[in-house]
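I'll show a typical protein example:
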Amino acid sequence: MLLEVRDLTVEYGKARALDCVSLLLDKEEVAALIGPNGAGKTTLLRTISGLVLPISGKILFKDKEITGIDPFEIVKKRIAHCSEGGKVFPGLTVLENLKIGAYVREDDITGDLNYVFSLFPILEKRMSQRAGSLSGGERIMLGIGRSLMVNPTLLLVDEPTLGLAPIVCMELGHKLKEISERMTSVLLVEQNAQLAFSISDRCYVLEHGRVVLQGETKKVEEDPHVKEAYLGL
């Protein structure tokens, strides 16, 4: 198993954001994490990437514990985190943003740069353009592309389609599935449940800081509660 989260608990003051959350993600797999706002989805990604410290529980990556490790060291283990909205450095060019994504690397990044451009051709066309002038969808592509410059084994992606047009959402979904087929597992937080189901292999439903349902995506998708609450059926 590539990633294993065991009984993870996180608190912000007196508020419990995650309550004994457990999760598995295998190699070359897309796992979707769905749930309402405030359920703890973003907190889970931030805890895995070392930005938030849990009060209990463990995070294992390739069977080795990484709980509480400095974020810089997490990235060096080839775990990349694309935060909500695909945050970019607006004053820098697209190319400069991508190169910053490879800051922990000392090897040749040309191959990964070409891969990002093949995945998102618009970024190559905008290569010399300042990131702050990109459209919302292009910023998301740049955020994902910058994360891929880590050459990650695990990619954490938080709400990539938020506020985007449906056609752009579907395109991004297909790209994430394509990324997973290139030896990069993806843990995806996504409000668009239909999109999440269409590209994921397994799914976790997080509500009030707890995993209330999990399993193969096809089985989760057929659950009556999921159909009513997330698919409007």
